[in-house]
Design goal:
The chain is an alpha+beta fold. It has one domain: Irregular (HU Protein, Chain A). It has three helices and five strands; from the N terminus they run ααβββββα. The strands form two sheets. The chain has a three-stranded antiparallel beta sheet with strand order 1-2-5.
Length: 91
Amino acid sequence: MKKAELIAAVVEKTGLTKKDAEKAVNAVLDTVVATVAAGDKVALVGFGTFESRKREGRVGQNPQTGAKIQIPATTVPAFKAGQAFKAAVAK
């Protein structure tokens, strides 16, 4: 599902106009991104939790040359699905 399809689904389920649904979807996504980028969590009960995680630096290998390279530490976004989401997918 692409963003436009998500907006169309919101329009269908809520009866909002396409413009209002697009604003709502964009507002939710922007808020999640800003919150996680600030280092906080977004927990949606039954759906899941968005958070940032620190990934330690490590040594990698260039697959073409076999040369060892140092991969720096970084912070990455992460999502952990909630129980209701997991159960719905498992059906």
